[in-house]
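This is your field. Have a critical look at the following sequence-structure pair:

***
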Amino acid sequence: MKLQSARSQQKHLSVAVYNGGFALVREMRNLKSDGPVEEVHFLGVAERVETDSIIVKGLDILEQNYDYDLVSKGKLLERYINRNVHVRNSEIGEEWEMRLLSVSECIIGERADTKEIVIDPAGELILPALPEGLLLKPALVWKIAPAAVDQEIRVSYLTKSLEWHAHYTLEIKDEGFQFDGWIKILNHSGAHYEKAELALVAGHVRQEQEMKNGDSPILYSRMQESLITAEALPDRLVYRINRPVTVMNEQLKQLSLFSAHGAQFKRAYQVRSGDTHADIQLEFSNSSENGLGMPLPEGVVKVYEAGDSGETFFTGEGRIEHTAPGKNLRIYIGKATDITSDSHEKLREKHGVHEYITYVYKLENEKTESIRLLVEHVIFDPIWEMESSSHDYERKSSSKVEFVLRIQPETTVELEFTYKVDKRREERGY
């Protein structure tokens, strides 16, 4: 006896979606039969299931197959080769019977009454009952020792082509802003997940194959801030949606992560050696004072700002990394047209075992307000020491130094610094 288990027998469904384009699906179902069962068809699994990831608890399985021989015109007609079918032509009110001979390139049949061979007969084919073994949906087929079943089973598996990403919008208003976070879920796995307990796992999880997905229709679902919580997983972070969520196959769904209003931020600018215009940098704290204070997943931030007329324009986008509560967010959104830089090496001279290098940045602020400008300079010599500087600086790493300047409106400032390199120690590899 064969027993079919459909999604209608499901007691619980949970889906954990990973950044890498795959998901862990966990189901709980009740199985009950009227007599001995030797084969169970577990219907409704994802078409992109990774069969080597399947775990079944509550059932002793002797053999497992994944059958996805789904109904299609070609596959269906192949099952009727050498069987009799009917051809109905409604236009002339005629119906006749033929034996189906081939469906490979065209439909070829032999009329039951005249034995004539007919190619692509006009009309519609009327087929007998659906052949046994042809599935309407993908299924896991389990062979078990013959016995009556009345039990609860738990099934889990990984499926490809189900992924999530975070993205954000930042709308700057006067001195504050509105910061909205969204979760985007893409489902190309070949299955619907209705009223599922949904979790989103942040962080890179290694898999052997890269998975790529196409575009999907978009469905927006607005959620309240309190309906998403974050919890720790070893070396990972899990965002749990605290209500059932339905994600249909070939759907792109967006869920609201949060909406923070009226927070304060800093606008800074940064130049590096060789830059002609400064990078624009927006910075604010991931804190409760800013309406945030939750772990933020990495994602792209699109920024909108109002001009002098009050009309809002898109002004750039940047990516943030996974950001813990209390840490600062920095978003680079493009180049400033009215902050320029001209940098060059001014002097290089050697005194004994030391070489002295002087570098100059000519920085111009054409704005009508003062600015905070960061100058990042990379020193490629492995062993060096700062000798003098016209402005304060901080050594960020063994090769990187950062200067902080406050430049008044419509003013040009020169940053000049000199560092020395110990060529003797460099040559010896110290």
The radius of gyration is 33 Å. The longest strand covers residues 328-351. Confidence is low (pLDDT under 50) at residues 210-227.
